[in-house]
């Protein structure tokens, strides 16, 4: 009879009983990252408050201080997005108001930027990611703007966040990366209008990555008949938009020449004034045709994608392209407003006086003005009506496309994006008009 013996197992230590090195599972690679982060902290924070503030910094600190001091903050596109002012005001609240504390948020993000390549090891390789962090550490550009109160480091960090979320979703297709993608875009657009360029870059990459996969897909041959009509619609829209654009450019040159002539030959009764007005009206007509062409092409693309379903749903690039589109589409409204010859920065509402309106209720005044030709023309010629109409239309299209794509994903991503956007642009709901100025004014001002 044999005696069975067993070695007693060592009791497992809980989290607090383990040493720090055992918990972190440190190796050479992680040790190098810690070293880079320490060097980043030193180079970003050493003597951070010694340099006198520059002109740009003085504006940013002034409005941040007013916000911190309880005087509120109103978004102005001239000084880009509101995130910087919220972050700087928060730093004042936490650490006091001085030159050093005003630069803490940018310095902190400068350190985070050095650490972020750690998340890219699967794509860059371990050595490549370490080298990228090292380059970020010693980059004169990144070092300078990590010690300078401007939007550059903020928007660079959010753009890298969007990029990381994109490549993680392309590989793993987990919804949580779509939420990070939406949050990164919201922070990016709440920081600086250069975000539109980042979207163009990332979007082009996704389109160029998606198209070759579709062209070699075996299911494409079976879907040719269904794709024919939608693609023809896309082509018609492109012809309308492209042709109208070329003609519109000629009309704009005519307006410029007529205006220049009218300015240099200021007659008491100048015939060039009428010519200039007619030319401006012509550019508006062609601008509307450009918008029509864009709408037709967009409709054709939607029908093309619908004809490819459910096959196209298996491509993560498609999901990211659609999400980019539905999140950013409302903010493209100012571009369309400018195309039709209106000013996206004009937020006035034209009204007219009615005889006896002092005794009318607001509802009676509304319907009376609606039925009066002069009042109706004044209303529809208002800048606020132009911009608001396009914004509402773009929001509606965004919801329709998002619902068609994937209503669950769309509503979660849209809630994340618009919550962050609304909180920042309305200065935590103390300036409700900030939402509209963010949606329209951000791009409209720089057009």
Primary descriptors:
447 residues; mainly alpha; 2 domains; 72% helix; globular
* Number of separate helices: 21
Q: Bin the helical content.
A: over 70%
Order of helices and strands: HHHHHHHHHHHHHHHHHHHHH
Strand content: under 5%
Alpha carbon gyration radius? 28 Å
Largest sheet: none
Number of domains: 2
Distance between the termini: 92 Å
Low-pLDDT parts are none
Class by SSE composition: mainly alpha
How would the global form be characterised?
A: globular
Q: Count the beta strands.
A: 0
Overall pLDDT metric: 88
Task: Explain what the structure shows.
The chain folds into 2 domains: 25-211, no CATH class; 214-400, no CATH class. Helices cover 72% and strands 0% of the residues. The chain is built from 21 helices and no strands. α3 (55-68) crosses α4 (83-95), α12 runs antiparallel to α16 (316-328) and α20 crosses α21 (434-446). It starts with 19 loop residues before the first helix and ends with a helix. The model has no long low-confidence stretch (mean pLDDT 88).
Brief summary of the model shown:
The chain has 21 helices and no strands. It is mostly helical.
Secondary structure layout:
Blueprint lengths: L19 H5 L3 H18 L9 H14 L14 H13 L3 H4 L1 H12 L5 H4 L1 H13 L1 H6 L6 H21 L2 H15 L5 H21 L3 H4 L1 H41 L6 H38 L7 H13 L4 H7 L22 H10 L1 H8 L2 H43 L8 H13 L1
Helix pairs in contact: 2-6, 2-8, 3-4, 6-8, 6-10, 10-11, 11-20, 12-16, 14-15, 16-20, 17-20, 17-21, 20-21
């Amino acid at each position: 009879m044999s005696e069975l013996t067993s070695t007693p197992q060592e009791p497992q230590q809980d989290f607090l009983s383990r040493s720090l090195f055992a918990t972190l599972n440190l190796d050479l690679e992680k040790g190098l990252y810690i070293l880079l982060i320490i060097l980043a902290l030193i180079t970003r924070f050493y003597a951070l408050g010694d340099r006198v503030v520059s002109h740009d910094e003085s504006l940013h600190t002034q409005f941040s201080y007013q916000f911190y001091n309880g005087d509120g903050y109103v978004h102005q596109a001239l000084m880009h997005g509101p995130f910087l002012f919220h972050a700087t005001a928060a730093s004042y609240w936490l650490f006091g108001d001085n030159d050093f504390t005003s630069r803490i948020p940018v310095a902190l993000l400068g350190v985070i930027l050095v650490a972020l390549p750690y998340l890219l090891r699967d794509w860059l390789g371990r050595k490549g990611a370490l080298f990228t962090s090292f380059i970020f550490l010693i980059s004169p550009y990144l070092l300078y703007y990590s010690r300078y109160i401007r939007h550059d480091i903020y928007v660079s960090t959010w753009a890298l966040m969007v990029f990381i979320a994109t490549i993680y979703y392309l590989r793993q297709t987990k919804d949580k990366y779509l939420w990070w993608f939406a949050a990164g875009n919201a922070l990016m657009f709440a920081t600086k209008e250069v975000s539109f360029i980042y979207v163009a870059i990332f979007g082009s990459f996704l389109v160029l990555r998606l198209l070759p996969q579709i062209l070699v897909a075996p299911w494409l041959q079976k879907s040719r008949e269904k794709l024919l009509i939608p693609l023809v619609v896309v082509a018609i829209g492109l012809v309308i938009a492209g042709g109208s654009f070329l003609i519109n450019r000629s009309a704009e040159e005519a307006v410029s020449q007529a205006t220049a002539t009218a300015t240099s030959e200021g007659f008491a009764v100048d015939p060039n004034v009428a010519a200039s007005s007619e030319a401006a009206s012509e550019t508006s007509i062609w601008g509307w045709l450009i918008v029509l062409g864009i709408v037709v092409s967009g409709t054709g693309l939607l029908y093309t994608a619908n004809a490819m379903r459910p096959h196209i749903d298996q491509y993560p690039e498609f999901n990211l392209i659609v999400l980019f589109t539905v999140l950013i589409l409302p903010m493209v409204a100012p571009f369309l407003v400018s195309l039709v010859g209106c000013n996206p920065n004009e937020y006035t509402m034209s009204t007219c006086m009615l005889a006896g309106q002092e005794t009318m209720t607001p509802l009676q005044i509304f319907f009376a003005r609606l039925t009066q030709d002069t009042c109706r023309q004044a209303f529809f010629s208002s800048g606020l009506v132009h911009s608001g109409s396009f914004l509402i239309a773009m929001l509606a299209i965004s919801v329709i496309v998002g619902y068609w794509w994937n209503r669950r994903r769309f509503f979660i991503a849209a809630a994340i994006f618009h919550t962050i956007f609304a909180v920042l642009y309305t200065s935590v709901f103390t300036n409700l008009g900030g939402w509209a100025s963010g949606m329209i004014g951000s791009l409209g001002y720089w057009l």
